[in-house]
Amino acid sequence: AAEADLSGRHVVVSAGGTREPLDPVRYLGNRSSGKQGYALARTAAARGARVTLVSANAALPDPAGVDVVHVGTAVQLREAVLKATADADAVVMAAAVADFRPATYAAGKIKKKDGQEPEPIVLVRNPDILAEIAGERPRPGQVVVGFAAETDDVLANGRAKLERKGCDLLVVNEVGERKTFGAEENEAVVLGADGSETPVPHGPKEALADIVWDLVSQRLT
Ligand code: C5P
């Protein structure tokens, strides 16, 4: 990667996993650690970009030289990402965003009542932030990157997802019991809307991040 090839650019990265509250003490969440998104933010800053990192519940220190916005839910993440995206050259959605949230929030802790069947949890759909940004392109020429975790038919599912979301690049990870979540290392294929396929061998999350920025950099106008 060329030194400072992202200087003068503003990039937005989302990281971590959203938490969708049921009541003041419980939430629906996921296993994303935020490490890949933080690696993307650090490497972009090292390459000269102004970086806005929208972080959902990652237990990681704020990277130096990066503007960090902390959020909890998918709705909050959407608001923060859209705000930062207005003048961004590239957006990388590395966060694991809950597809659904509980339809209602109980202001007081939900209690178990003796002899009563548990209540089902009713869910409603969250907005698809990646599809929204890819569809609207708040700034012309903006490069939009998504992530996908797949357990099988990784390439076919990834290609279908890239088309459905309308993004320029999709980083597809194979996930399984011990793979990806919380790990220091990653292995992926980066699919391009131009039909390209860039395999990324098993290695540190920084190495994948640098390849993503190489591919973004080539597409910036
Ligand atoms: O559809 P799926 O959740 O597999 O898509 C993953 C990609 O879409 C990730 O880049 C994630 O950040 C993004 N996403 C989103 N809004 C959602 C769900 C996922 O932006 N509601």
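^ cytidine-5'-monophosphate complex. The chain has five helices and twelve strands. Residues 205-219 form the longest helix (15 residues).
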